[in-house]
Design a protein that fits this description.
The protein is of the alpha+beta class. The protein is built from seven helices and seven strands, in the order αααβαββαββααββ.
């Protein structure tokens, strides 16, 4: 018959077992946590690739995501590509509608122009002048909206490059044959090797809007220069005209921000240039020229 027993060995064994099981559970927790992290990281890696490819898709409406490496991710890729297809179709329809609207307005404008000529021949000079100004304003607005519709087709994917000097020389040649441009001296200062990452028609439209503005206000001289500075292409267009007051420069870049109410312009040239520059990843700034007039400076990154 046993009346008493020393329980210290039992307590010691129980404490040692508790420590061992705690250490085992801690190690098991670490292993399972690491395994879970690896599983999640490997499982989400394809989605990380999709996120990177979305940047290309965002830059160009024509791009599409490539086929996914995992079957589980392919439905997401297909859905994104279908959305991109729908977006491109909507943009194309919008461009066609803008073109149809512009062509549809040409006939009424031609009829109004004929009425203006008849009014002028009848001696109603003031009425004819008013009609001509209205026609010019409507035609300018149509051209501007067509340009904005084409902005949707501008790819900032940097897959097309256009020679800068060649484009400027072609624009200057056209402007020199206009009545106002024939009275001015043009100077072009830029290397022949410089290129801009955009199609030729968009670069011509962008620089053409600014050069036409410079020709309209210049007294004797228009200068175009370009160079690369710290990974940035800098293009400057300046004239020796009256310029723009510093407090009015922001308004000049706004849509329809016309500062000279006496001229025949529509006030949309600089706004179009700003929108085209921004659509191609660049920027535009206005300032004072050393010639005494307005300085328009464009900047585009030369890398990326």
């Amino acid at each position: 018959m046993q009346l008493a027993q020393d329980t210290r060995p039992l307590r010691t064994a129980r404490a040692e077992f508790g420590r061992e099981i705690a250490a085992f559970l801690a190690i098991l927790w670490l292993v399972l946590s690491a395994a879970a992290w690896v599983q999640v990281a490997l499982g989400l890696r394809p989605l990380g690739g999709v996120r990177g490819e979305l940047a290309t898709l965002r830059a160009s409406a024509r791009q599409r995501l490539p086929e996914a490496s995992l079957r589980e991710v392919q439905p997401l890729v297909d859905a994104i590509n279908a959305l991109a297809d729908a977006r491109e179709q909507d943009l194309e329809r919008a461009r066609r509608r803008a073109a149809d609207l512009a062509h549809g307005l040409k006939t009424p404008l031609a009829a109004i122009a004929a009425q203006s000529r008849r009014a002028r021949e009848a001696g109603a000079q003031a009425a004819a002048d008013g009609m001509d100004r209205a026609i010019a304003a409507i035609a300018g607005t149509i051209d501007a909206e067509l340009a904005r519709a084409r902005l949707a087709a501008v790819d900032s994917g940097r897959d097309v490059r256009t020679g800068l000097r060649e484009t400027v020389e072609r624009l200057v040649t056209v402007l020199e044959h206009t009545e106002r441009g024939g009275e001015l001296a043009f100077s072009i200062d830029m290397p022949a090797t410089l290129t801009v990452a955009m199609p030729a028609e968009h670069l011509s439209e962008l620089l053409g809007a600014v050069l036409e503005n410079a020709v309209r206000h210049a007294r004797r001289q228009v200068r175009v220069s370009a160079a690369t500075e710290d990974g940035t292409l800098v293009v400057a267009v300046e004239d020796d005209g009256p310029g723009i007051a510093s407090e009015q420069m922001r308004a000049a870049l706004a849509r329809g921000g016309r500062l000279d109410e006496s001229g025949s312009g529509t006030g949309l040239g600089l706004a179009i240039a700003r929108e085209l520059a921004e659509a191609t990843g660049g920027s535009i700034e206005l300032g004072g020229s050393t010639l005494g007039g307005l300085l328009v400076t464009f900047r585009w990154p030369t890398s990326g």
